Task: inverse folding
């Protein structure tokens, strides 16, 4: 049995909660641009916990960034001929403005039935579930049906150049035989009041992600005196392109997963939906309320103007201007989005973006989705399990390039008193203790089956 005290774990907590609180205290903050604190100490501790339970994890990092560490472990299953399952979680968290918090964001405190702290929702709760599951299996002598690969990765919050992307490019053999990648986020209990007064107990599982074109637009022109304006003005050309993007009405593009989400949600709420009618779709989104999440955005491309830089003095025409635009597109819409952006930007402005290609889109009719649904329904017989498309992207994008289906499955169950987790990246981020414990049991049931 693992010595909890020696590993800094509070003895009075459920194991998964003790692990989560310890993970929060590492404060593995990812500031972006290659700067991070705490990932190596976190990875070392994760590996130490696994070794204390008799496993042999690997710690891997880029030669030029040994402090950006990842941990990978393969747990052999009873039938090694079966396809393996990868479950992945990231060790890094986003920065905080401590003055906006009512508690220390890195103390890992339990307040009013919630684990409160940065990463409690995104996604150290799932990392804790992974680690606690491995420890419990070792203590109880449990062997999963098939190989289970656990990847505790760095750098998800800044794109994965030190984490999942790097592992896929340089250590793909670690994931040999994995047919499915299970990561953030989905399968979290969401109560939805139906129009007829019923409470629908919704558990959305992510089967797709939107793609991202984090676009840099830039243009050059002759610099000059502000008293002598010219039509060849870098700022004017850039602003014209940005205005075309901002004013463009992107057409409706309902991917198969979003169509399945709309149909399943409408059925659960006792509604009908016409997937070719924007008003019909909007009615379902409105009926879901907060449970709709990103659904209102995943039916078409979105383009948000986020950064604009030009000039340094009012009477000087600058010779260079640049802007950044966050473009997100539905699964399967890469080529059409690229063509539209080229036309909107025009020939006078240069643009570029990281080449990530099509986002992952997995089958909600697959045996993997069915197994996730079965684990949820076993814990909550009234559960309504629906597929959904995430508004952003995750490390699932990287693992999908190895041929895996990628799902967001980080279950949480109902907690007393109507306690629900906060959104991600907010001040006073918190997650209900009972929901985490119940979600941990669902994840164990899925991985063991």
Result:
């Amino acid at each position: 049995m693992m010595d909890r005290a020696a590993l800094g774990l509070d003895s009075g907590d459920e194991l998964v909660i003790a692990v989560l609180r310890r993970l929060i205290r590492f404060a593995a903050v990812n500031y972006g641009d290659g700067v991070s604190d705490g990932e190596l100490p976190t990875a070392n501790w994760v590996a130490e916990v696994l070794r204390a339970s008799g496993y042999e994890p690997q710690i891997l990092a880029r030669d030029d960034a040994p402090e950006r560490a990842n941990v990978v472990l393969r747990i052999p299953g009873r039938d090694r001929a079966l396809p393996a399952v990868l479950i992945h979680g990231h060790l890094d968290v986003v920065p905080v403005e401590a003055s906006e918090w009512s508690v220390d964001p890195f103390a890992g405190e339990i307040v009013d039935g919630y684990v409160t702290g940065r990463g409690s929702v995104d996604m150290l709760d799932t990392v804790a579930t992974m680690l606690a599951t491995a420890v419990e299996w070792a203590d109880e002598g449990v062997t999963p049906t098939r190989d289970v690969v656990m990847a505790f990765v760095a750098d998800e919050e800044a794109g994965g150049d030190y984490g999942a992307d790097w592992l896929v490019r340089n250590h793909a053999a670690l994931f040999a035989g994995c047919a499915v990648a299970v990561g953030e986020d989905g399968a979290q209990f969401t109560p939805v009041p139906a129009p007829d007064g019923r409470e629908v107990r919704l558990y959305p599982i992510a089967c797709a992600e939107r793609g991202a074109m984090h676009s840099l637009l830039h243009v050059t022109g002759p610099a000059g005196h502000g008293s002598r304006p010219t039509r060849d003005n870098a700022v004017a050309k850039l602003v014209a392109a940005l205005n075309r993007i901002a004013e463009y009405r992107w057409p409706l593009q309902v991917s198969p997963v979003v169509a399945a989400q709309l149909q399943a949600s409408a059925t659960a709420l006792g509604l009908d939906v016409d997937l070719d009618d924007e008003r019909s779709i909007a009615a379902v989104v409105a009926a879901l309320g907060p449970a709709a999440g990103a659904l209102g955005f995943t039916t078409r491309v979105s383009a948000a103007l986020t950064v604009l830089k030009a000039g340094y003095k009012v009477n000087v025409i600058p010779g260079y201007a640049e802007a950044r635009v966050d473009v997100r597109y539905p699964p399967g819409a890469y080529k059409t989005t690229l063509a539209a952006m080229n036309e909107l930007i025009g020939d006078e402005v240069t643009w570029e973006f990281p080449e990530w290609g099509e986002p992952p889109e997995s089958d909600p009719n697959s045996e993997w989705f069915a197994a996730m649904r079965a684990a949820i329904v076993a814990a909550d017989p009234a559960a309504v399990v629906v597929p959904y498309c995430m508004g952003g992207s995750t490390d699932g994008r990287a693992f999908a390039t190895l041929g895996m289906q990628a799902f967001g499955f980080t279950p949480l169950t109902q907690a007393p008193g109507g306690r629900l987790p906060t959104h991600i990246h907010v001040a006073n981020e918190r997650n209900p203790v009972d929901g985490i414990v119940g979600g941990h049991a669902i994840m164990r049931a899925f991985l063991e089956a």
Observations:
- The radius of gyration is 23 Å.
